[in-house]
Amino acid sequence: MDAASAPPTPAPQAGPPQPPTATPGSAPTAAPSDRLPREHLTVIALLIASAFVVILNETTMGVALPQIMEDMHVTASTGQWLTTIFMLTMAVVIPATGFLLQRFGTRVSFLLAMSLFTAGTLLAALAPGFTVLLVARAVQASGTAIMMPLLMTTVMNLVPPHHRGKVMGNVSLVIAAAPALGPTLSGAVLGPLGWRGVFGVVLPIAVAALVVGGIMVRDFAERAHKPLDVLSLLLAALGFGGLVYGLSSLGEAAGGHVPVNPALPIVGGAAFLALFVWRQLVLARSDDALLDLRVFLSRGFSTGLGAMAASMLAMFGAFIVLPLILQRALGLEPLATGLMLLPGGLAMGLLGPVVGNLYDRVGPRPLIVPGTLLVVVAFAGFATVTPQTTWWFVLAAHVVLSLGLAFVFTPLFTTALGSLTPRFYSHGSAAIGTVQQLAGAAGTAMFIAVVTAREASLLGGGASGAEALTGGARIAFLVGGAVMLVVLALGVTLRKPATAPGAPMAH
């Protein structure tokens, strides 16, 4: 949007460092002035390391869950709540992080996030029963929900626009590599240390990050002394929580195993979400919104977020179906499945900084287009898998998928947030995190529902279990490929945001 239509700006906040300038006829400014101060680099590195730990923790539970169920004598449906409560808590807390970061600043937000995560990890390691472990997972998730918006907001505030791609590439490394390493770490620790050891290994790293952060992290922008609107918080919890729970229940409903009709929380969540949106639009007039929806007035942000949501929907759906194929159709053990998916995750993470550097040079479009096409090719490969397919073919297709996603996510993250003015970075980060949770739940529900429906049809026609599963997955991956074509259509319209710090939100 243009300067005239930009939202009113309160007291200015500290923006990213200005690039060096030189007057005509004078000696150019020394190159080091274009670099980030050591203090800023240290803080960003600490935040990236902390984010790595909290995201790593998210994906350790899947491998550990069977042992927890056996040790605590709970059923699979009860044990699954350890994952569900984490996802629900994230969905409830993330929409409030924009307000939290502006109201309390970088330092308090970091200490709160890591204190919650550390306390939850300690409580989980010592949990005497399932209820305490469930509470511990919710506490962990509260800290995790704050960390990623905090990291992205801090990067946007401290890093000049012409270097953001490089730094966001490192953030992408964390987002990609940590989930890939989680199941492998969990599998390695479970044998000698048991499920409590999974939390015990993470605990000292979290404590170290908390202590170092308490010394190093300070506020890098002025705080906005805004009141907390309790009604908005309640509506967000009911709206986003209901949608995520309902969507995550759709897959179980397709299989005939669900305690509550998913339509009830989905419809109820949508109604509360509509009230939440109305409330935020009203509060935005006085600049008091819990989640400032004026970020969507930026075409670059809205388009980038739309492409990101579609990409995440396809990615989460694929990542939930692939292990099912590997274990139930190809006969791999859980640990072998985790190890086979590791190369792709590491490749996506290691490529992140490279893609970030390329983004700084060429912008988003030359990266998003080939990246999206790689994902479509990978999905086409997955659609050909049968029970006779060799494991290395799936491994190769997964690496292609991961490389494609690396070329998609870093440009989308950087372009979307870079299209906003600095005062909206925290709300933009919160919106991205919220959409990520919704897209993850929707993608999982969509893929599982498609697989289950087609699988049941093929089983009724006399197909074997493995043939029916791969037949259902074939349709799901074709649908995923179609979703990625939407990403392609949106991606070709994106351009790199203006590099002038503090510029109004761009169309």
Name some characteristics of this structure:
disordered C terminus; 3 domains; transmembrane helix; 0% strand; Growth Hormone, Chain: A; 507 residues; mainly alpha; transmembrane
Q: How would you characterize the overall build of this protein?
A:
- Helix content is 75%, strand content 0%.
- With 507 residues, it is mostly helical.
- The protein is globular, with a radius of gyration of 23 Å.
- It comes from Xylanimonas oleitrophica.
What's the short story on this structure?
With about 500 residues, the chain is mainly alpha-helical. The chain has helices at about 40-60, 60-70, 75-80, 80-95, 95-125, 130-160, 165-215, 230-255, 265-285, 300-330, 335-360, 365-380, 390-420, 425-460, 465-490. The chain is about 75% helix and about 0% strand.
